[in-house]
Amino acid sequence: MRRLLILIAPILLLNLAACSPVAVPLPSLDGTEPAPDIVLPTPEGDLLALSDFRGQAVFINFWGTYCPPCVKEMPILQALYEEYADRGLMVLGVNVEEEPEKVRAWTQEHGVTFPIVISDDGTVNPIFGLRAMPTTWFVDANGILRGRIDGEMNAATARGVAEKLLRK
Predict the structure, then answer these.
(1) What is the pLDDT of residue 67?
(2) What pLDDT does 27 receive?
(3) Fewer beta carbons within 10 angstroms: which end of the chain, N or C?
(4) How many domains does the chain have?
(5) CA pair distance 89, 144, nearest whole angstrom
């Protein structure tokens, strides 16, 4: 038994690290690079492009149902979407490496109404330099990457970034 624990302990630690929040400062939102125009399927199979939201500020949230901080952050993002959508803020959830049926069932069960797309093969990981889950990138209304937060956001941080991003 001890030998088995020694063998699986590193795997468990890696999985926890992949889903753990990473302490990073609030982004300055002074980025200048255009966001890559990713095109991914929704859980229903329709294609959705990031450029479909040009003219709106966008929180691109990379998440998974297997990640406790991602699950904990989801109601914050839903509330943010409901509060700021009429002011021009979009939340786009990018589920990483899960099957569409699982994502559809989970989002319906948890009342997620903002758009969700799926990168079931993880192709977005290197494009957006994902190092932790969740990760949220911030894109201004002109399609410019303004910053990101690696790890779980609390409601105050999410609102602060939204307010700042909507003033850009």
Answers:
(1) 97
(2) 57
(3) N
(4) 1
(5) 14
Residue listed under structure tokens 């966001």: 35
What are the φ/ψ torsions at residue 18 (nearest 5 degrees)?
Answer: -65, -25
> Burial of 135 by CB count in 10 Å (0-12 exposed, 13-18 middle, 19+ buried)?
buried
DSSP string, 43-85: TTS-EEEGGGGTTSEEEEEEE-TT-HHHHHHHHHHHHHHHHHG
Domain assignment of residue 21, given as a range: 2-167
Mean of pLDDT values over 87-94:
98
CATH of the domain at 88: 3.40.30.10
* 55-to-38, 65, 120, 168 alpha-carbon distances in Å: 16, 29, 27, 12
Predicted local distance difference test score (pLDDT) of residue 32? 77
pLDDT in tens, 48-82: 999 999 999 999 999 999 999 999 999 999 999 99
Give the helix, strand, coil percentages of the chain, each rounded to 5: 40, 25, 35
Phi, psi angle pair for 165, to nearest 5° = -65, -35
Q: Is residue 136 classed as helix, strand or coil in its secondary structure? A: strand
Work out the burial of residue 115: count CB atoms within 10 Å of its CB; fewer than 13 is exposed, 13-18 middle, 19 or more buried. middle
